[in-house]
Design a protein that fits this description.
about 55 residues, 3 helices, mainly alpha
């Protein structure tokens, strides 16, 4: 499964983000990037793209 991370990697990402005072902690990086891009789109485009992603 692409983007899968181990527990150790997840803990490291969370601890690093908390120590840096980040409001949002997303991992893996590619997944967080995709979510940030989607959040900038209008709702109808978000739904259309997510439907296609779920089907494939």
């Amino acid at each position: 499964m692409p983007g899968r991370v181990s527990v150790e990697e997840a803990v490291k990402a969370i601890r690093t983000g908390l120590a840096a005072g980040k409001m949002h902690i997303a991992f893996p990086d590619g997944f967080g990037f995709i979510l940030r891009l989607l959040s900038g789109l209008p709702a109808f485009l978000q739904r259309a793209l997510l439907r296609r992603m779920v089907r494939s």
